[in-house]
């Protein structure tokens, strides 16, 4: 069991999240975890629009309610008491004294806001200046608010009229369907006028439209005059007022978003508000109409331009930086530069420029070497593809070619440390490399850094310790241990294992061997697969630190539901992810705990020959004082009471162990007996039956089998227990495995009639009522895939 809430790591920050399965939008079933997931994913588009602005929040602590019964909400300006100390903040003077507002510049702050039910994020049209005071607005906004009897189509008509006027003023407005009823128009400003001056301009714009189109629009605030018209609200340009930020969720009955749109979309007579899922899909397709309004920092290129003569060098000389970039996935280039002496230039995308380092010896080929890197001035984004000869006498004279280029998945980006996985072009010299840049001296341009190639998976596997009868180095190159396994049994048999029972909860997760060495935890599944990168809260910087030089632990990776119960279905959200960005987002929505229950090696000493009781005592010493997400659970001494309690709390069951037993790696031993409250069976997927109705285009049911002496034996199908995400993931993994013929015999004609067969490579797990006399699973329900198991390991549970 775990206490309510989990401490998770996001962007290098630790924060507690709670009640992730709480339904916030009752009409759609949207949960708090999904809201946190949305804000984590939309951050690259949202954060540039919030940066430098005080954020006023609208909070719904009990959910948004329904259309007929909307829930209470409240606005907050002052930063909440108990806010994490790392949340940036800035004061604004009010008539009753100063108030401290949060600045939302990073993903951890977004996640914290979602955790406290701050669903709507409202900001002014100005940013703080260098002195921490409200600056001049860098954009204007016109709110097109439909009166009674008016829909989005009429708002769009008025928006097009306003666009014509604004374009004539030299402005290029962007429409945003507000996520509520109407449309907002935004246009970027040079920042030369005050809020009062901009308000006066937009007010005059509203009056012009009202004068020319009195049947369509009004600039009068009185509600009695809005019937059948669009109200042109110019007042939100007042320096003391705020507007819902583009890409913010709305607290309506549905999870609509203040969604930036294209002008072509506004021509659609069926124009409607967009949900958070639709907005994320647009983001994945590269649609971001607001990118033109992202802040640009042209001063970043001042040093670059000052060193070059545009008339003499073929290097790119853009007038301004590119739109600001955000997020973990960025572009990079490494150039081979034959200047006075050969060196290499490493450049990484950030804030619309390429942050650059000169690396005399290039990228280290092994993790045992560090190379000097010297920071140079930022270069324009056009340098990603630059190759050519810089003339003699010019800065950097010599030939420059692209050595390799690609994308980098960033793990850390600070002013003194950068870590990421760099993936070059196909067939390029870099391949994939996890690199770290660490500043050692100075700041900014000409500061000294070390470029280090970090150990990849193969390096770590070679250095993984393995228990031996005698002390050994933590870097000994030996294979990972396979976990000891339990046999099925009955309570009577379990009680006979030892006169003094030792009972543990049977955790509904995936088994993992944890190897602690060199100050870092590595995780390997039962199959030996390295799953370290999938669980950064257990393995990355900021994860719990064991007070030992070296250790090997046996445990279970578990995800808990909101009632504190292990949930294998929730763990499915994490088990199959491999991309760092996807993993970091899901860490917030689906945190995990490593339940440590055995210690196999400690500081070079093999413990597998010691009695369980002694191993556990040493384990508790090692894990004492660690906070979540590493826990050592209690042990019970009453089989019947523990089994009854596990059933009452909806747990999978218990494991009864002989407290004097030694650890037998890879063996199924009668010294460990598992007692289950529900029947479960691992199965091999052999086919798909297509979905119909709501599931059309996806999976209706899966056809299942288990190995037998005569080959695969059909055991029925399963069509319940799936989430939409499970169905998408299953279809993606099964589609490449399609084969024209059934991989087994004996499938009933009805089940085989429309089956799509697949190679029997994926293992899953179902819970079921019982076996029929002819060996078919009855009342089966899908639990999830078991990537830690192979088809050969599947056996019929008795």
TrEMBL record:
Its cofactor is Mn(2+). One of its GO terms (biological process) is DNA repair. It catalyses: ATP + (deoxyribonucleotide)n-3'-hydroxyl + 5'-phospho-(deoxyribonucleotide)m = (deoxyribonucleotide)n+m + AMP + diphosphate. Its EC number is 6.5.1.1. Keywords: ATP-binding, DNA damage, DNA recombination, DNA repair, DNA-binding, DNA-directed DNA polymerase, Exonuclease, Hydrolase, Ligase, Manganese, Metal-binding, Multifunctional enzyme, Nuclease, Nucleotide-binding, Nucleotidyltransferase, Transferase. PANTHER family: BIFUNCTIONAL NON-HOMOLOGOUS END JOINING PROTEIN LIGD. It comes from the Bacteria. InterPro entries: DNA_ligase_ATP-dep_C (IPR012309), DNA_ligase_ATP-dep_cent (IPR012310), LigD_ligase_dom (IPR014146), LigD_PE_domain (IPR014144), LigD_pol_dom (IPR014145), MtLigD_Pol-like (IPR033649), NA-bd_OB-fold (IPR012340), NHEJ_LigD (IPR052171). The keyword Transcription does not apply. Residues 585-708 form the ATP-dependent DNA ligase family profile domain. SUPFAM superfamilies: DNA ligase/mRNA capping enzyme, catalytic domain, Nucleic acid-binding proteins. This is DNA ligase (ATP). It is an enzyme of class 6 (ligase). One of its GO terms (molecular function) is DNA binding. NCBIfam families: LigD_PE_dom, ligD_pol, NHEJ_ligase_lig, PRK09632.1. Residues 471-483 have a biased composition (Low complexity). In the N-terminal section; belongs to the LigD polymerase family. In the C-terminal section; belongs to the ATP-dependent DNA ligase family. It holds the Pfam family LigD_N. Residues 308-318 have a biased composition (Basic and acidic residues). Residues 308-330, 455-497 are annotated as: Disordered.
């Amino acid at each position: 069991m775990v206490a309510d809430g989990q401490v998770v790591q996001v962007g290098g920050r630790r924060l507690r999240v709670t009640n992730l399965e709480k339904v916030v939008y009752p009409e759609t079933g949207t949960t708090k975890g999904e809201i946190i997931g949305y804000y984590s994913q939309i951050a690259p588009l949202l954060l540039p629009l919030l940066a430098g602005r005080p954020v006023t929040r609208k909070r719904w602590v009990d959910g948004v309610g329904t259309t007929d019964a909307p829930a209470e909400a409240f606005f907050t300006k002052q930063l909440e008491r108990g806010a994490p100390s790392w949340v940036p903040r800035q004061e604004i003077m009010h008539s009753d004294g100063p108030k401290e507002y949060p600045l939302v510049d990073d993903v951890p702050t977004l996640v914290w806001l979602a955790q406290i039910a701050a669903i709507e994020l409202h900001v002014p049209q100005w940013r703080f200046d260098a002195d921490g005071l409200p600056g001049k607005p860098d954009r204007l906004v016109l709110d097109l608010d439909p009166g009674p009897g008016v829909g989005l189509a009429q708002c769009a008509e008025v928006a097009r009229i306003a666009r014509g006027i604004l374009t004539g003023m030299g402005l290029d407005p962007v429409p945003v369907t507000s996520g509520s009823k109407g449309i907002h128009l935004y246009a970027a400003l040079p920042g030369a006028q005050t809020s009062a001056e901009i308000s006066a301009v937009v007010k005059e714009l509203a009056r012009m439209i009202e004068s020319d189109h009195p049947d369509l629009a009004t600039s009068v605030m009185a509600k009695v005059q809005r019937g059948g018209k669009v109200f042109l609200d110019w007042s939100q340009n007042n320096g003391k007022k705020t507007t819902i930020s583009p890409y913010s969720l709305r607290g309506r009955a549905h999870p609509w978003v203040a969604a930036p749109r294209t002008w072509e979309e506004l021509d659609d007579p069926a124009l409607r508000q967009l949900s958070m899922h639709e907005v994320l899909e647009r983001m994945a397709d590269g649609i971001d109409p607001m990118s033109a309004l992202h802040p640009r920092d042209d001063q970043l290129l001042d040093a670059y331009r000052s060193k070059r003569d545009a008339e003499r060098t073929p290097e790119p000389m853009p007038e301004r930086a590119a739109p600001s970039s955000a997020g973990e996935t960025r572009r990079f280039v490494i150039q081979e530069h034959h200047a006075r002496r050969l060196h290499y230039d490493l450049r990484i995308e950030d804030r619309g420029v390429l942050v650059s380092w000169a690396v005399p010896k290039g990228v280290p080929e092994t993790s045992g070497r560090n190379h000097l890197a010297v920071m140079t001035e930022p270069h324009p984004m056009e340098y990603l593809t630059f190759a050519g000869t810089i003339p003699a006498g010019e800065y950097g004279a010599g030939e420059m070619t692209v050595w390799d280029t690609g994308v980098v998945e960033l793990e850390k980006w600070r002013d003194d440390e950068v870590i990421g996985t760099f993936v070059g072009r196909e067939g390029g010299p870099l391949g994939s490399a996890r690199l770290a840049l660490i500043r050692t001296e100075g700041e900014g341009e000409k500061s000294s850094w070390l470029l280090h190639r970090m150990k990849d998976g193969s390096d770590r596997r070679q250095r993984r310790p393995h228990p031996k009868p005698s002390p050994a180095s933590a870097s000994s190159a030996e294979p990972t241990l396979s976990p000891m396994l339990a046999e099925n049994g009955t309570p009577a048999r379990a009680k006979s294992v030892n006169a003094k029972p030792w009972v543990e909860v049977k955790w509904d997760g995936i088994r993992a061997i944890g190897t602690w060495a060199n100050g870092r935890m590595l995780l390997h599944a039962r199959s030996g697969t390295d799953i370290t990168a999938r669980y950064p809260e257990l393995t990355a910087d900021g994860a719990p630190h064991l007070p030992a030089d070296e250790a090997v632990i046996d445990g279970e990776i578990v995800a808990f539901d909101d009632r504190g119960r292990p949930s294998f279905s929730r763990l499915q959200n994490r088990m199959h992810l491999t991309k760092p960005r996807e993993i970091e987002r899901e860490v917030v929505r689906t945190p995990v705990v490593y339940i440590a229950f055995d210690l196999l090696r400690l500081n070079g000493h093999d413990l597998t020959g010691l009695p369980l009781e002694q191993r556990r005592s040493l384990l508790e010493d090692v894990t004492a004082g660690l906070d979540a997400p590493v826990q050592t659970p209690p042990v019970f001494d009453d089989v019947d009471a523990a089994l009854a309690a596990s059933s009452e709390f909806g747990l999978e069951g218990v494991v009864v162990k002989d407290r004097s037993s030694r650890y037998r790696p890879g063996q199924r031993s009668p010294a460990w007996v598992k007692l289950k409250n529900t029947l479960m069976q691992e199965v091999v997927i052999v086919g798909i039956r297509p979905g119909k109705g709501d599931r059309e285009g996806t999976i209706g049911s899966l056809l299942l089998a288990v190995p037998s002496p005569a080959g695969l034996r059909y055991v029925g199908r399963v069509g319940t227990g799936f989430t939409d995400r499970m169905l998408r993931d299953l279809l993606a993994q099964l589609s490449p495995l399609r084969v024209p013929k059934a991989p087994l015999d004996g499938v009933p004609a009805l089940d085989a009639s429309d089956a799509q067969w697949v190679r029997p490579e994926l293992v899953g797990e179902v819970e079921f009522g019982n076996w029929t006399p002819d060996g078919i699973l009855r009342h089966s329900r899908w639990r999830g895939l078991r990537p830690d198991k192979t088809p050969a390991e599947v056996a019929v549970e008795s």
